[in-house]
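Bench log. Compound arrived from synthesis this morning; before running ITC I wanted a structural hypothesis for how zinc ion sits in the protein. Inputs:
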Amino acid sequence: MKTLTCDLCDHEARGETFEKWMEALKSHYIEAHADVMNDPSKGEADMKKWMEENKTRFDSEATSSKETT
Ligand SMILES: [Zn+2]
């Protein structure tokens, strides 16, 4: 399980895998950053870049050994 903060705020999203984490982050984005998601100036290339940046962040984050919850 990895915990990474949102790239726009301090919200923490958790996930076992990148896909699971991305799902958690996406639901947060829909609630908190809907304006960013609906930005018409952002195209598929921006989305891809965003995904890649987050994948890099996820991969470089060490898996937490102790779970508090
Ligand atoms: Zn956020």
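What the model suggests: The pocket of zinc ion is lined by residues 6, 8-9, 11, 28, 32-33 (CB under 6 Å). Strands lie at 2-5, 12-15.
ITC booked for Thursday regardless.
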